[in-house]
Amino acid sequence: MTMTLRLDEAQMEALRWCAEREGRSMREIAAAAVEEYLRRAADEEVERLAIEAVRRWKPLLDRLAQ
Q: How far apart are CA 48 and CA 19, in angstroms?
C-alpha cells in the first residue's frame, strides 16, 4: 500500500538534511517516525487501560488485602 505525504518546504528540507546526514532515505526516516508514533500511541492506550482497571477494581483489591 502506498501513501502520499505532503510536507511544507521547511519540513522537506529538514527531512532531506537528516536523510543525507544519516545515510538513509527520506522514506526510511518517515516510516521509522510513523512506527515510533504508533508504538507510543499503543503504550499510552495500555497505560490508560491499566489505570482504568486499577480504578475499577481498587475497592475489591483493597478488601482482598485485608
A: 35
Sign of CA dihedral 11, 17, 41, 51: negative
**Mean pLDDT per 10-residue segment, the chain (66 residues):** 93 97 96 96 94 93 90
The one-character DSSP state at 66 is: -
Span between the terminal Cα atoms of the chain, in Å: 55
- Is residue 3 within 8 A of residue 34, CB to CB? The reply is no
